Amino acid sequence: MELSKNLMEPHLLQAKPEDESALGFGQIFSDHMLQVDYTSEAGWHNSRVTPYENLVLDPAALVLHYGQEVFEGLKAYKGIDGGIYMFRPMANIERMNRSCARMCIPEMPAQEILDHMLELIRVDQEWVPSLEGTSLYIRPTIIATEACLGVKVSSRYLFYIITGPVGAYYPEGFNPVRIYVEENYVRAAAGGVGEAKTMGNYAASLLAAEEAHAKGFTQVMWLDACDKKSIEEVGTMNMFFFIGDEVITSPLTGSILPGVTRDSVLTLCHHWGMKVTERKVTIDEVVAAQKDGTLQEAFGTGTAAVISPVGSIHYRGTDYEVGSGQTGQLSLKLYDEITGIQLGKKEDPFGWVVKVV
Ligand SMILES: *Cc1c(COP(=O)(O)O)cnc(C)c1O
Question: Which of 48, 286, 291, 356 is 20 to 30 Å apart from 134, CA to CA?
Answer without folding.
Answer: 48
